[in-house]
Amino acid sequence: MQVRIEDVSPVEKKMFVEVPWETVSQKLGDAYKELSKGVALKGFRKGKVPRPVLEQVYGQRVTAEVAYELVRESFFRANQEHHLAAVAEPRVEEAAQIKKGQPFTFSAIIEVRGEVVPQDYKGLAIEKRKLAIPDTAVDEALATLRREHTELRPIEGRTTTAPGDIIGLSVTGQIGEHQINQPQFAVDLDDEEREPLPGLRQALTGVPIDTKDKKIEITVPEDYKDEQIRGRKAELTVTILEARTKDVPELDDEFAKDTGKADTLDGLRAALRKDLEDRETEVIDREAREGALRELIKKNQIPVASSLVDRAVELQYQRLRQMLGMKPERNAQIPDDLKDKMKPAGADEVRGQLLLEAIADKEAVTVTDEELNKHIETTAKSRNTPPAKLRAEWQRDGRIDSITYSLRQDKVLKYLVDHAAITEVEKLSQPGTPLPEGGGEHEHGEQGHVHGPDCDHDH
Asked: How far apart are CA 109 and CA 94, in angstroms?
């Protein structure tokens, strides 16, 4: 087999191949021999059909299949021998007909990763938000924790409902043209934000706990958030099924101890502040990595193979479907207009992945066994499963390499931020482009996986 390779572009090469007749003849012989085993034609026993008869009936199909096989074998051999780093199967441009005694020749375009030489990746100008947790955020966290420790108790010493109660109802009637039939319905007489209907809490406050078939009429305000019932008149019949009062804990040292987070109220506030700061720090760090990647791509608009872009667009489309609550669908057809809109972002996503990989190689960034083990332990803990079991699961599913790849990409992003020219700001001037799937875990299909250029899997 003779192979000649020509450069077409930084990400495309043209392959010219000539396969000698001896090889073609052997392939044809093997194909007809295999075909004859299962063919039964009238007048011949199964497996005894002469080759000339097979050529007459199946010749066109067999030569097409042999040609396809020769192209694939030539491609894989050329890819290995010439170190092409192909990213997709060849696109045949010209192919001669298979003729007896003549070599089989063809030419094909091969898309390749191309050489990636990252430039100016140190000193990237990025913004980073200052860490600022207002006291109001701590107060809200404390109020949430207080609600979580609130107990519901039977009402004693009174016969009517009061603010602070949670009541269970059965409700029938209508709101405008909408019919209502709720056999079990809960209303918190304190919770204005989750009030199902404006004025309902007030109508149910101060009524007998054993209320049955009470008529309630409410006119919904014209500016109500739900457009479907704005200005409508509600005519309801309610029966109280159950009423409970909330036993809200006092904000004191005893409450702090009950939470298990601190021994004093001041200590609890400090612990909640630290939790908020830790979470916000993660967000700020992710934003910085996103900013660094965005600037890296701006400075390195390297050419990328169209097949890699198409693959990235397909993955983005699957993620979009997932966000919209749609079921994953392999090879889902993307509308052409949407595909065209998604291609620039898909190209930049591929550029980012290739650049990060090239920087990792140049700076000798690696993932140690200790780092991989730590990631497995952290993920296992979040799933409440033994680390050994999770590792075995990932090994069985062939995920270890992709997880290691993602961890390596994350280390490069951290390297970029560590070597960036950072300006601290109160608010980012440009929202960050999210990393694939956000931050966090790093396995395929889960939050935080940075998809490699050669990933080929579903979501």
From this structure: 10
Where residue 319 falls (left for φ over 0; alpha for ψ -120 to 50; beta otherwise) is alpha
Residue 48 has pLDDT above 70, yes or no: yes
CA–CA dist 315, 317 (Å, integer)? 5
Give CA separation, 243 vs 210, 238, 239, 326, 332, in Å.
9, 13, 11, 40, 51
Beta strands in 377-418 (DSSP E): none
Only one residue has tokens 């990409």, namely 409
Assess whether 243 and 263 both reside in one domain: no
CATH code where residue 302 lies: 1.10.3120.10
**pLDDT tens-digit series, residues 167-213:** 999 999 999 888 989 999 899 998 888 888 889 999 999 999 999 99
Q: What's the DSSP call for residue 46?
A: T
283 and 372, same domain (yes or no)? yes
C-beta atoms surrounding 129 within 10 Å: 15
**Domain finish residue from 84, 111, 138:** 111
- 123 with 168, same domain: the answer is no
The CATH number for 91's domain is 3.30.70.1050
Contact 5, 77 (CB under 8 A): no
Nearest-CA neighbor of 152 among 204, 185, 205, 188?
188
Could you tell me which residues come within 8 angstroms of residue 442 by beta carbon, excluding any fewer than 6 positions away?
375, 403, 406, 407, 410, 448, 449, 450
What are the b/e assignments for 52-67, b being 16+ CB within 10 Å?
eebeeebeeebbeebb
Distance CA 412, CA 435 (A): 13
**Residue 199: exposure state from Cβ atoms within 10 A (0-12, 13-18, ≥19):** middle
Listed in sequence order, the residues at least 6 apart from 42 whose beta carbon sits closer than 8 Å to its beta carbon are: none
Q: How many domains does the chain have?
A: 3
Phi, then psi, of 408 in degrees rounded to 5:
-65, -45
The number of angstroms, rounded, from the C-alpha of 176 to the middle of its chain's C-alpha atoms is 42
Distance CA 318, CA 326 (A): 9
Rounded to two decimals, what is the model's pTM? 0.72
Structural domain for 184, as ranges = 151-247
Nearest to residue 86, comparing CAs of 72, 100, 98? 72
**280 in the same domain as 321:** yes
pLDDT tens-digit series, residues 81-138: 888 889 888 999 999 899 999 999 999 999 998 889 999 999 999 999 999 999 999 9
How would you write 204-245 as a 3-class SS string? HCCCECCCCCEEEEEECCCCCCCHHHCCCEEEEEEEEEEEEE
